[in-house]
Amino acid sequence: MDHPFSTLWAKPSRLVVGLMSGTSADGVDAALTRITGCGLETRVEQLGFYFQPFDETTRQRILDVCGGDFGGSREICLLGTHLGKLYAQAVRELLRETGIGRIDLIGCHGQTVYHIPEDTPYLGGTVRGTLQIGDPSWLAEEFGCPVVSDFRIRDMAAGGLGAPLVPYTEFLLYRSETEDVALQNIGGIGNVTLLSAGCTLEDVTAFDTGPGNMVMDALVSRITDGNLGYDDGGKLAASGHVIPELLAHMLEDPYLAKKPPKTTGREYYGKAYVDALLAVGDYPLVDILATATRFTAESIAVGLRRFAPRMPARLVVGGGGSRNPTLLRFLREALPECRVQTQENLGYDSDAKEAVAFALLANETLFGVCNNAPSATGAKHGVVMGRINL
């Protein structure tokens, strides 16, 4: 009997959809790609992108579950199924917009609702774990192709943090023989990948720099009584003033001093963090937002100065934060010795970057290629991440 993947292995290229819904919990990014080869021979072309926002009720339910003390097994079951159907809807719309009738493979990150990268006391021992929900079976059933999901846990089983995952794909796509390059994603959390000139995968360094948009988004929601979920164009932050003493307080954050490999999330920079920030002093909310925006920029600069072997020649910014001119201005001010660019400056798509990454990771899983970056996650060795739903 032929291997179930033999036909896909034999194809000169594959149509692969990547799906990502991140810590901002704003919706689903869906990217259609054409991928040729695997490993260092991989080539990818983005053919389409579709963003499907979550309705406010779904977004709030995700945030509630992410808090760790809301709901239970019934809630997670229902929400996971609901998200699986929303992922299928996003792929359906993506294929309708691009006019594609059939795809070969889907890579779906799922929605992280809890991530515990450090040893945690439990039932007389210690455990580390991660939970991504959004059942991939709905995708496999509707589109009749393999679906790769649940990437993080295999890296954790090998001793890693299960994050960050995109450094492997950034190594494939962005490495340079002539200059040091840093790739900074600013989603809910900020994460950076450091690619020294002529690096191998073993040389790649990557870590979460701290909050990306997460704290800013929470403050915008409070400023607007829930009417806005993010600072469109950085306009609100631009109307405020950075509070020096509050910024100094935020920069004392012990996470910034922690050495890589390290990862963080909503468990650290969520509601409790924002409540504590608001309790520091009686400041105007818009000034706190301006300060939090500056803090995101400064936390990136701190990470590069403390943990990069050398200051990179270029910092290429992607993710939703790249759409915030106020944040980019603060970032350039914080890093005057580094060229700060966006994905668009290089001809790429900031919005689609992580979704494309999961298409690439799924393609590697299909070929049995190790697709983590142990030097970034802390895993003891390379592993093939992702569970396959046929």
Describe what this molecule looks like in 3D.
By secondary structure, the protein is α/β, with parallel strands linked by helices. It has helices at 6-10, 56-66, 73-98, 137-143, 152-157, 167-174, 214-223, 235-238, 244-250, 254-257, 266-269, 271-278, 285-307, 325-334, 353-366, 374-377, and strands at 14-21, 27-36, 43-53, 105-122, 125-133, 147-149, 181-186, 189-195, 205-211, 314-318, 339-342, 387-389. The strands form two sheets. Strands 1, 2, 3, 4, 5, 6 and 12 form a seven-stranded mixed beta sheet that branches. A hairpin with a 2-residue loop joins strand 7 (181-186) and strand 8. Helix 3 (73-98) runs parallel beside helix 4, helix 7 runs antiparallel to helix 13 and helix 9 crosses helix 13. It starts with 5 loop residues before the first helix and ends with a strand. The model has no long low-confidence stretch (mean pLDDT 95).
Helix content: 25-40%
Main beta sheet strand tally, sense and closure:
7 strands, mixed
Number of extended strands:
12
Beta-sheet strand percentage?
Answer: 15-25%
Instruction: State mean pLDDT (0 to 100 scale).
Output: 95
Question: What is shown here, in short?
Answer:
With 390 residues, this protein is α/β, with parallel strands linked by helices.
SSE diagram, text form:
Layout: H1 6-10, E1 14-21, E2 27-36, E3 43-53, H2 56-66, H3 73-98, E4 105-122, E5 125-133, H4 137-143, E6 147-149, H5 152-157, H6 167-174, E7 181-186, E8 189-195, E9 205-211, H7 214-223, H8 235-238, H9 244-250, H10 254-257, H11 266-269, H12 271-278, H13 285-307, E10 314-318, H14 325-334, E11 339-342, H15 353-366, H16 374-377, E12 387-389
Parallel strand pairs: 1-4, 4-6, 7-10, 10-11
Antiparallel strand pairs: 1-2, 2-3, 4-5, 6-12, 7-8, 8-9
Helix pairs in contact: 3-4, 7-13, 9-13, 13-14
